[in-house]
Amino acid sequence: MAGLINERVKPVGDSPRGTYDARVVQNVRICTDHYRLTLGLGRFPASTPGQFVQIECRGAEGGGSGGGGGNSEFRIQNSELATEYRAIEWGPGLSRPALHDPDFLKATAYLRRPFSIAARRENGGAVEIDIIHRVVGRGTHWMETLERGQEVSVIGPLGKGFRIPEQLELALLVGGGVGIPPMIYLAEAVHRAGKRAVAFVGAQRKDLVPLTISPCSPAASGEGEPVLNATEFADYGFPTVVSTDDGSMGTKGFVTGALRKFIEKLKSNSEFRIQNSELAGVVVYCCGPTPMMKATAKVCAELGVVCQVSLEQPMACGMGTCQSCVVKWRGLDAERLAEGEWKYKLTCTDGPVFDSRELAW
Amino acid sequence: MNSTQIKSEVATPSLAVRIGKMRLANPLMTASGTCGYANEYGDFADLTQFGAFVTKAISKTPRKGNESYRIVETRAGMLNAIGLANIGLEAFLRDKLPLLEKMHVPVIVNVPGWSIEDYVDVAAELDQQAIVQGIELNVSCPNVKNGMSFGTDPVRLHELVAAVKKRVQRCELIVKLSPNVSDVAVTARAAVEAGATCLSLVNTFTAMAVDIEKQRPVLANGTGGLSGPAIKPIAVFMTHRVYTEVAKKHGIPIIGMGGIQTWQDAVEFLLAGATGLAVGTALFIDPNIPNQIAAGLRAYLGRKNLVDINQLIGALQPAQPAA
Ligand SMILES: Cc1cc2nc3c(=O)[nH]c(=O)nc-3n(C[C@H](O)[C@H](O)[C@H](O)COP(=O)(O)OP(=O)(O)OC[C@H]3O[C@@H](n4cnc5c(N)ncnc54)[C@H](O)[C@@H]3O)c2cc1C
Ligand SMILES: Cc1cc2nc3c(=O)[nH]c(=O)nc-3n(C[C@H](O)[C@H](O)[C@H](O)COP(=O)(O)O)c2cc1C
Ligand code: FES
Questions:
Q1: How far is CA B257 from CA A334, B72, B300, in A?
Q2: Which residues have C-beta within 8 Å of that of residue A49, sequence separation ≥ 6?
Q3: pLDDT of A241 strictly over 70
Q4: A326, B33, B144, B170: which has the fewest C-beta neighbours closer than 10 Å?
């Protein structure tokens, strides 16, 4: 099959990816800056968590404003979060333009924008996919204005997703900021595979956690960490540990701190009763800002746990042609390059998911 | 777009063009570096319908290319500083040529270089490959140190093209002109006098984007090449200038490019004097755009009661004051 895909010179019925016209089913504001956009597609090839789509962030006419779409239709789910924050305070190392610059808002996104698939539902051949995105610039601002019924061009599914190994016992889903969405889709797959998971989510502030948090107690505990009930994970019986930079929700601090404590406990007297105390059945899945993924990979390396990371690199094509999305790679096991050597791999087609040990980042 | 309703067509107008000995079913081709090596877009577009396929730059030995960030979007376009990352000639011949053969369209290979020998060695080897019908010399890539020199200096350009010409017997020898010159007709003339059988233009414009928070260039390379709709009007002008000053009188075809995204853009380039039309950055948004443009061109010809696309090439009328 792989051979056939490599030799394809035109799309055929069973192409594993393609360009599709989707219709907006729903566009819901879920916290200060995040929206859940549900797209309906007549047909969409099989996809796996960690894969992404490229969305053309402008109307059919090429206009930037989305045709007079206001926020009128959008349900703000949590009234406590309804306060209008328009300026985003970026954390250290992040520098993004302020959203209130009118010129900035009017500019049209030219290239497509990549977004992880956050959920997928089938109904009788038709497919619905969810995109959870944070409004940070031209493209996402246009997406914010989308209304039910509007057409959106989607290329996908792209890239190689997360791998769920046979011996998996416990998946630790570590998502930071806009890295949380793929973890929701992954939770479903882990559940379907009959495995267990705990979600660790990190955000700057309470109002930037793009999850539906409810107070009821979760099905399982977080090894002494305060657990919250995020519907997105609790639906599968998975508890959620939240860390915020300012402590406004969950624990104050970085998600890696909570993760380290959790794994250390797993090794000794865990309620999770991992069969192999060497943690061979534990896999950490991570997506978020690069510094967070590096820190997570470091924790995992120190504690001897396998870590799959989903990288975000600037992408022009997403289809493996422009060579823009490179990451330094040194291979693993039989593919390991000589000490000190590395080569570039493409995030869009070789990734975005890599085993953290493969990377020379 | 909406005002141009297609009237009933008598006969389907012909889109076939010739670029030297190459016969293209339609003028539309890919622009080097925006379409991979072969069939990367196979799931998104019917590549067998393209007029021709132009590969990523292939150098003598593999190249890693520049550090990240390699691209940044700008108004109506983007900057790239890929640094000619590619798998090298050997891997290309072994792994990619067999795939290109399956497309059944004329294949043009883009060749970069840092010395005359670099170009000559790769071009001579490609000339031996039956599947390859054209060799496009990338003398204008502004990204790599000194990559600028051949494309901006008519004397060195003449020397380079003449040297390559000696070793290329079978393939069309296409010289891809740099727009980073004050008069593109000067370098165009040098290339043609040295034996180029076709000219392609334009490559990207050297440009820069600044991250105002970090107060540094966005791209790791500092500068990058600007492409996309932002450059189209300049590219149309340059195509027209080269056509009228050089190509027309020497009977040399032009492959026009720079921001082509719609059939209307394509018509502008044809009227300005282009025979071939390469689509670059727009492929990132939709790899099937060349086929859509071909359909649009067919409808336009029908509406203008033209039977052959060659009737459009260089057919631009003189400018006139508004009525
Ligand atoms: C594989 C992949 C999956 C992604 N999944 C999601 C997702 O599920 N949800 C989501 O909200 N976002 C996701 N992103 C990020 C998303 O693509 C960007 O937020 C989006 O492209 C921004 O577009 P814009 O036009 O709104 O902003 P722009 O106007 O393009 O940019 C605004 C600012 O954000 C910066 N920026 C843009 N993209 C990135 C990036 N990838 N990393 C760091 N800084 C960036 C720019 O430099 C600029 O300063 C993903 C990215 C990748 C590569
Ligand atoms: C990402 C990228 C990579 C490119 N690589 C090459 C290359 O390897 N060789 C070359 O001759 N031109 C290269 N180009 C230039 C294009 O072939 C083309 O000349 C230019 O982009 C203008 O056309 P466009 O506006 O349609 O993209 C590249 C352009 C882009 C955007
Ligand atoms: S985004 Fe173009 S090669 Fe990865």
A1: 44, 20, 19
A2: A117, A161, A162, A182, A183, A185, A186, A188, A189
A3: yes
A4: B170
Question: Could you tell me if residue A327 is inside a domain?
Answer: no
- Do both A29 and A114 map to the same domain? yes
ipTM score here? Answer: 0.92
List, in sequence order, every residue forming a beta bridge with A284; answer none if it has no partner.
Answer: A172, A307
Which residues does A315 contact at the CB level (< 8 Å), separation at least 6?
A: A54, A114, A322, A324, A325, A347, A348
Whether B287 and chain A come into contact, CB under 8 Å, resolves to: yes
Q: In this structure, which ligand is nearest to the CA of B81?
A: 2
The count of other CB atoms within 10 Å of the CB of residue B88 is 14
Quote the pLDDT of residue A102: 52
* A290 contact B CB<8A: no
Interface membership of A18 toward B (CB under 8 Å): yes
For residue A106, pLDDT over 80 is answered with no
Within 8 A by CB and 6+ apart from A66, the residues are A59, A142, A145, A146, A147, A150
Whether residue B49 has pLDDT greater than 80: yes
CB contact under 8 A, A112 and B285: yes
- Residue ranges of B 114-173 with Cβ closer than 8 A to chain A: none
> Pairing state of beta strands A213-214 and A196-203?
unpaired
| B45 contact residues in A (CB cutoff 8 A) | 10-11
Q: Is residue A212 part of a domain?
A: yes
Helix or strand run (H / E) with residue B18: strand B17-19
Contact yes or no for B43 and A5 at CB 8 A: yes
Same domain, A154 and A175: no
Atom 2, ligand 2: which residue's CA is nearest? Answer: B33
The answer to whether B65 contacts chain A (CB < 8 Å) is yes
- Asked if A159 contacts A119 with a C-beta cutoff of 8 angstroms, the reply is no
Residue A267 lies in a domain: yes
Can you tell me the distance from the alpha carbon of B98 to that of A142, in angstroms, rounded to the nearest whole number? 42
* Domains: count for chain A: 2
Taking the CA of residue A28 as centre, how many other CA atoms within 13 Å lie in the half-sphere pointing to its CB?
14
DSSP category for residue B188:
H
What pLDDT is attached to residue A86? 34
CA distance B293 to B28: 8
**For ligand 3, what atom is nearest to the CA of residue A326?**
4
Give bridge partners of residue A49 from the DSSP assignment.
A51
**How far, in Å, from the CA of A255 to the mean position of ligand 2?**
42
* Buried residues in B118-128 as b, exposed as e (16+ CB within 10 A): bbbbbbebbbe
In a domain, B279, yes or no: yes
**Would the pTM count as exceeding 0.95?**
no
Domains: count for chain B: 1
**Closest C-alpha among A252, A257, A209 to residue A231:** A209
A294 contact partners, CB below 8 Å, separation of at least 6? A361
Q: Does the residue B267 lie in any domain?
A: yes
